[in-house]
Specification:
Length: about 160
């Protein structure tokens, strides 16, 4: 399923993006297979003033990245069902769209194969820490001081 903000969208967005979904602010792609967690992440981002679009699998995320040019950040679940997972998408983003910022989220404390310089937040997400990490990454002068795969800082809820 594809979503733009709180609206469900048909698969036609892959070919012809809905103009109402064009970013008036920063657009963030949320890729999470668990619907409740995906909605929670989207709600946290919307509360912070960001536009979101989401996908429930890695393949759909790559299709959206190919179709849309307004995406400035992607929030990726590390483990997802299917032939590709979040790490596969992360590597593709770095190779094809190096300007897109990425944050990985995982229920595990330190997933295998995560590049050391990748921000990693542990689920369940603390809204305060999550939004602070998003803002830090999207700030052009950021020192890039964020939790990474090699030194994960927990972002557990309150």
């Amino acid at each position: 399923m594809l979503r733009c903000g709180n609206r469900e969208l048909g698969a036609t967005i892959i070919e012809l993006p809905d103009p109402s979904c064009r970013s008036r602010t920063l657009m963030i792609l949320v890729v999470e297979d668990d619907e409740i967690q995906r909605q929670d992440i989207e709600a946290q981002l919307a509360d912070a003033g960001y536009e979101t679009i989401s996908a429930d699998n890695a393949e759909m995320a790559l299709r959206l990245l190919n179709a849309l040019r307004d995406i400035q950040m992607i929030v990726l679940d590390v483990r997802m069902p299917g032939s590709l997972d979040g790490i596969d998408v992360l590597l593709a983003v770095r190779a094809r769209w190096p300007g897109i910022k990425t944050i990985m989220v995982s229920g595990q404390a330190n997933p295998d194969q995560l590049p050391a310089d990748t921000p990693l937040l542990t689920k369940p997400l603390s809204e305060e820490k999550f939004v602070a990490t998003v803002r830090q990454l999207l700030t052009p002068t950021s020192a890039q001081d964020f939790p990474t795969g090699s030194g994960t800082v927990s972002a557990f809820g309150h």
